[in-house]
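Researcher: Quick one. four chains, 1444 residues in total.
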Amino acid sequence: MASNSFGEAFRFTTWGESHGPAIGCVVDGVPPRLPISEPDIQFFLDRRKPGQSRFTTQRQEPDRVKILSGVFEGQTTGTPIGLVIENTDQRSKDYGDIMSRFRPGHADYTYEAKYGIRDYRGGGRSSARETAMRVAAGAVARKVLAARLGNAFHIRGALVQVGPHKVNRDNWDWDEVERNPFWSPDKDAAETWTGFLDDVRKSGSSAGAVVEIVAEGVPAGLGEPVYGKLDSDLAAAMMTINAVKGVEIGDGFAAAEIPGHEAADEMRMEGDRPVFLSNHAGGVLGGISSGQPVVVRFAVKPTSSILTPRRSVDKDGNEVDVVTKGRHDPCVGIRAVPVGEAMMACVLADHLMRHAAQCGS
Amino acid sequence: MASNSFGEAFRFTTWGESHGPAIGCVVDGVPPRLPISEPDIQFFLDRRKPGQSRFTTQRQEPDRVKILSGVFEGQTTGTPIGLVIENTDQRSKDYGDIMSRFRPGHADYTYEAKYGIRDYRGGGRSSARETAMRVAAGAVARKVLAARLGNAFHIRGALVQVGPHKVNRDNWDWDEVERNPFWSPDKDAAETWTGFLDDVRKSGSSAGAVVEIVAEGVPAGLGEPVYGKLDSDLAAAMMTINAVKGVEIGDGFAAAEIPGHEAADEMRMEGDRPVFLSNHAGGVLGGISSGQPVVVRFAVKPTSSILTPRRSVDKDGNEVDVVTKGRHDPCVGIRAVPVGEAMMACVLADHLMRHAAQCGS
Amino acid sequence: MASNSFGEAFRFTTWGESHGPAIGCVVDGVPPRLPISEPDIQFFLDRRKPGQSRFTTQRQEPDRVKILSGVFEGQTTGTPIGLVIENTDQRSKDYGDIMSRFRPGHADYTYEAKYGIRDYRGGGRSSARETAMRVAAGAVARKVLAARLGNAFHIRGALVQVGPHKVNRDNWDWDEVERNPFWSPDKDAAETWTGFLDDVRKSGSSAGAVVEIVAEGVPAGLGEPVYGKLDSDLAAAMMTINAVKGVEIGDGFAAAEIPGHEAADEMRMEGDRPVFLSNHAGGVLGGISSGQPVVVRFAVKPTSSILTPRRSVDKDGNEVDVVTKGRHDPCVGIRAVPVGEAMMACVLADHLMRHAAQCGS
Amino acid sequence: MASNSFGEAFRFTTWGESHGPAIGCVVDGVPPRLPISEPDIQFFLDRRKPGQSRFTTQRQEPDRVKILSGVFEGQTTGTPIGLVIENTDQRSKDYGDIMSRFRPGHADYTYEAKYGIRDYRGGGRSSARETAMRVAAGAVARKVLAARLGNAFHIRGALVQVGPHKVNRDNWDWDEVERNPFWSPDKDAAETWTGFLDDVRKSGSSAGAVVEIVAEGVPAGLGEPVYGKLDSDLAAAMMTINAVKGVEIGDGFAAAEIPGHEAADEMRMEGDRPVFLSNHAGGVLGGISSGQPVVVRFAVKPTSSILTPRRSVDKDGNEVDVVTKGRHDPCVGIRAVPVGEAMMACVLADHLMRHAAQCGS
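Model:
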């Protein structure tokens, strides 16, 4: 149960609605004596912040995180870390007309079907606003990973596809990711996407995307077969992100197409340690990390919050047309990059701690 | 923690190694007074059984399940159901030469890295043999679903791709699934696969596959946002199956390519109830079932147990070549169909019960 | 793991230190469409509030609870309820001299041993201040119980012993509980305790107590054998309350002294339903509620925060004497009464929901 | 949920009914490379075995445990350990007459109320037979404790009260515990109990008891505040044992009677490490172990399976008299000693591993 919590040893619980007074989370199980401050967390929140380009929602929120517990004199104490962000720019009136109408492709109908009530303002609990707290939890997780794995470890994310346009992997440049508004590792793709998304926005529609997250410096041995496999937990983690419809590890669906003698990553010795000659597996074998980079991709569907009228029904059983007028991203996948990074951090921190429990650190 | 358990309200725990004396599982939380017998479970085990065609392993096991607890006079009692299958055809000597060698693409290396010890016989705990117990648990889950949802509910699975060869969805015929050794819904595809897999087998290699599982008659309202979403739990469930590298819900990765005005499933009224005009979402919106068919697909990589020699290393750091001589499926994806069905059943039973806890039944 | 959460289906997670900026909790799994407001919760917090008589700490805190999520237009929505109370009267300077000294009988030493760091201000996380959030969660649990069980259900608590002085059960009067500052059901005992505690306070010491919580109107059938037994969860719940050293169900330790033919509660029919002729079992048989009142008692040790100097050591290994000068209750057991009631409510709400999951409601 | 599992990091799940074909358990999360064999577990099962004196049930069962998984070449592999004991001496006919009658003081009525069905043979799932699997799980837990804590660590249990007769603590001799059929640390008490229980048995009644379990060599720092406190988990553990009605840590209920300046355990330095001058707290402060012996006591009510006729009702609403003819212990508390030891071992192993996850080992 406990459906608003994620993780076992490193566990966070989020609360809050898009247009309530605040959103927050509790991070439980954090190891003691890790240095952490509000700016450390704010840094990652700012990367996810909306309103940074014309391709993300113009909703302006400072999103100032406050640490309310679990940190004393700049260090974690081992007790739960309470984090909160006040909601300051809510403009609830924008949403009045969807009070009783179900936006197609949204969770409006299913929340109503499940609970018989919903906070319709801005999507309430189903809003991607909740992901801000994942980014905050992820910032805490990175402290755990940094303390236990050191500088060789890092997580990076990139957008690898927008609508039908994929990056050219031959152009991959991690430095480029920080230089364009799409987290694109391919400068040319970023230019293509600019034109494409301008057209999408003008046409009153939206576009999907694919995000790739890579963790390097992950030690071999993380993951708990058979129902706490590292890849299973990563799949669950990414699939909880709003609008995600597919998850891949390593080659993913392409693995179904290649023959077995190609698919298996061969091994050789490099000095006194084994190395893999390829990484089709995406760093996970039998649910346990192999020491190679852990590679996850996920597909984000185009948002249904669009200006084009769509057919729907309302709570009273009337057939209606729905247009979503609020401020929305033409491609919500862009802002999913820091969220995916955060979820990767949380899953790895959790498994690092679970591994220590069973096998020692 | 508890890495060998799956589910919350309907929860099963499996144990056992490929070549140990037995494998088993405990199904906990089963509602009382459901009629169940060993043949009810055996029926589904027989569908998964190896050795049924030349495309699955020739290992011959009767796989006779025994119910050791939780059932009294033909009915569940609400207490945990203990199930066990004895391992009778183990031929451990087949595996002697991989005692210290890491088979590329297998979990041999990662188990060793994690635990410092492994039961190498037949892959030990990492063997797909463990999935027999999932099928058994799934048979119990189906009893829960039948009791609470009635006959309108059913789960069906099909193989939709082998290697690069996909089914033609215009030919889809659920009846055909039971008539060919591949669970193919497309007769023509089954023929193509026959020739393809014969070639694969002769070449000493193996092929991947994609499996699709569809649940119809699922009521709207199942799934617990935001970290117990129905699609997230399904993704986790499928990703725990051996060799799975990708999971999709509804349109999956294709959803990233279509525009927003196409992606959202529109709604109209049909008499006094809302209906959807398409099912891009695969029956899940905001992590909650919409009442439409729940559609999941997963990609299975080609098995690494092949006759073609591959480069690897051994425990002592020597570079070696590995050939896997045992009896292995050229396409392990085929036998993943009943396993995927079982996991779908377990996830749905779990969420049906969780929904009853919070929202009443 | 998740050590700061309690419950499965009805689950709350608390965070916050005694002298941090705020304390809070998240209540997850709450059924939708229950009417609830801040005053509903405040009512129970006010019962626990310190400073109400000379027998409880003079720390003055308004303890104003705010609902930050999960409630919309006066009703629960099924999403997590975020609750927060700001800490407004902290006087940290009172605690400066125990920064490095371990107060005997307190958690100072063990927190230091476990975490290597502690927020020493007011006991930090180990302070009974955390119990305010249990009372808040308990107020939410009562809404669940009221909605599902109706008016026949209620929980009441009483103090039945202070130091060596027990109530006379022949004088038991539930109405009296609300009329004296001790929650005593026996007017005479309250008078005895007044004199006794005045002496204790003057002598610079403190006194222990025993609390009894009774839930009436609990239906038969709640509790999950064998490791989620109702009495086991109640014992765990009460033992998590600060300073509790013992828990009893029904006759408790006295059950060890009576013969078997007396101990078993006999049954007869009353009209068409079975009734018990006694309640030695305290309403629980085999871990499942019997329909009789559920009776729990717990022992609270005398607080170690006393003016009498006690021998101890400090972080640097020096032998020191410790006197606790802050504002402290001479008998912390008094304020444990509303906390025990709240924990009873949370356990019962949880089991009511768990029962609905497995057996239907 | 998962009511038949106990523990988080070290987690066991039991299954089986008193008169089903077998009982068993799965121990999950066990660290790898611990030496373990069937005789290691059998040793503890034999200590609990019935039929060893005239004071325990004459049911004769060899109770041969089999290890079915998780152990390879004499060592744990980190995968789940499946254990099973066949039921060989069931004599179901003894119980025919209680098929529809509710034995007073038993779980017959509450299982029926909860599940609407019950396996009445020998009490089914509510039988103390389930505790055999706890003893087996406890034997595994001891291996974890031995590997991580070494020889200074040990757990010992004793019976400290039978009916109204307590041991004289001045006579306490741990060696005596192994020399009498009661696990009494006081030779004189054992003699008193012999006469007392003979009388009880002849009178067709039964007697309660109090068990004390002591763990020495527990390091400071185990336990997870605030809802996974070491004492809270111990209370839950002991309260799940059949017929237990009360649990105490350290002074327990007596702590309510002594003044605060006596209750707090003072500290001094002994060389370079802090020592406590008393152990009123029973080795736990603020829910965390202090490094002192962990002391738990629990009260076992007299069994209701007695020859004296008691008034009850049956399933059809008839008033009946019930006499329990089977083979039953006059004092079930005696056999609870090894069970309590086992639960102590499981709780400590779990917390040792949880501590390693958060704080490192």
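The first helix of chain C runs from residue 38 to 48.
Researcher: Thanks, that's what I needed.
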